[in-house]
Amino acid sequence: MGRATEPAILPLVLKNEIEHLQQLPLPFLQKQEYSVFIGYSSNELGDIIEGSRCLIPPIRNESGLSGNCLVFLDEYHFVSLIRELPTLFTPVRRTILLPFRGDYLPERRLRQILHQLGFPEIFIMDYERLSNTCFTSGISHPIPVSSLPLMLSQVKKSDATTRWLVANRYPTQL
Fold first, then answer.
1. Whole-number Å distance between alpha carbons of 10 and 86
2. 174 Cβ neighbours under 8 A, 6+ residues apart
């Protein structure tokens, strides 16, 4: 994913963002305070989620990322930010939410990266749009030293087109 390939990948990222916007887990996000959305289509969310901010890539400094919940509209933005500026996640106080399809990195590697960044609890969230409910599965905590994910529960099979990887700084009561 070098700089030369980024213009070529832009249409795919935009297409994915539009799909992810339609599958956004609104019940979960409406409980969050001070959310920051990252994506080319993030401005669409300004009126939907009260108290949120929207950032369009590229992100150059960490001040824009300060908030309780950091939401990526495509996995590509997370992978790009990790590649260039991994220390930018320091100001995220509570949660990182990113759509997961496995287009860029395997799930196990994403979990390990998030654990290494200081997020001890990670799980998969599926959003059922018709019933407006969220389901969680696949909870992991880091193995000491390596930060490899130790799975506490299995990831349930789902028909959802978008699965969300949720990383918490502090364990939640699910």
1. 22
2. 123, 136, 139
Q: With CA atoms as reference, report the closest residue to 70 among 171, 164, 140.
A: 164
**Domain residue spans in the chain?**
3-168
Partners of 97 in the beta sheet?
Answer: 71, 166
* Tokens of residue 85, six digits: 């500026």
> With a threshold of 0.70, does the pTM exceed it?
yes
Separation in Å, CA 77 to CA 15, 46, 98, 157, 169: 14, 19, 9, 25, 20
3-168 placed in CATH 3.40.50 = yes
Asked whether 137 and 123 are in contact (CB, 8 A), the reply is: yes
- At 4, the pLDDT band (50, 70, 90 cuts) reads very low
pLDDT of residue 5: 54
